[in-house]
């Protein structure tokens, strides 16, 4: 509360809270890098240019930077996303053709919350609404692959160019994958009970929220998100700091450099058992790019971690058969490999 509000015995208004929060965010954003340098080299007395100094400075700079991005930009993204509830997404996709439906569902995947725990209800809800299987899978590919957390972190850390490349790559894989799965007519690999639910979805209702409700819900979602993914972030930033400070550029180039023709499939294989929250991969991506790994190879690594998810496949097994899971994983993997090689070819 402000002193004026306390004096009057009233709570501060929502616009005042938002204004103060934005000002505080901006001050913290511009202060965190000089503060990290001061802590690393003045307080801790580390040597500039040393391996340890570089690693510690990277860690101390990235932790507040990533947390500020999450608290600030994800709140805004979530506020915008409140206008696209699942009911509205389902209603918008019903009756569209395969191509238009796949493109629309992939685009909706960017702004719609999705995680492994919501895979089954989303899948069943789409089938209930009569949405084609290929269109459904375009959404299931896009939503975890083009993660809104990863998007805002990439935008904040690397700028809009790489962030837009990331979106374009993810949408390409999602749309192509949806079209491929739709063309193969794989409905026989969906568990029979799912089809029996079709048409039973009932009347979809939409809750109307006030502007205050939307801001409050967005902030609560962001705080909960930050709480849940902070361990992943700290691990990811720690790994990124070690890579930044200690990993020889020659080693990174040998594994994922342009001179290795098998770099893209190699990093995809490495990424599969390293499943992590998308936000936790960004500091690693930042460090790998800083060591000279090509953008396409780095994108392939990040997408494999977030999209080829063993927990998601285990949960999806409740509604689809292993044959369709294998086809789904194969289509996504091929798409990631193509994206990696494509962007390595077109972006120096």
Choose one word for the global shape. globular
- The N- to C-terminal Cα distance equals 52 Å
Strand share of the residues? under 5%
Segments where pLDDT lies below 50 for 5+ residues? 1-7
The number of helical elements comes to 17
Q: Compute the average pLDDT.
A: 77
How much is the radius of gyration in Å? Answer: 22 Å
What number of domains? 1
Count the beta strands: 0
**Order of SSEs, N→C?**
HHHHHHHHHHHHHHHHH
What is the strand and helix layout of this fold?
Blueprint: H1 3-8, H2 14-43, H3 51-81, H4 86-93, H5 98-111, H6 119-128, H7 133-145, H8 148-158, H9 160-183, H10 192-196, H11 211-246, H12 249-256, H13 263-271, H14 278-290, H15 295-307, H16 310-316, H17 322-346
Helix pairs in contact: 2-3, 3-8, 3-11, 5-7, 5-9, 6-7, 7-9, 8-9, 8-14, 9-17, 11-14, 13-15, 14-15, 15-17
Describe this structure in words.
This protein is an all-alpha fold and 348 residues long. The chain has helices at residues 3-8, 14-43, 51-81, 86-93, 98-111, 119-128, 133-145, 148-158, 160-183, 192-196, 211-246, 249-256, 263-271, 278-290, 295-307, 310-316, 322-346.
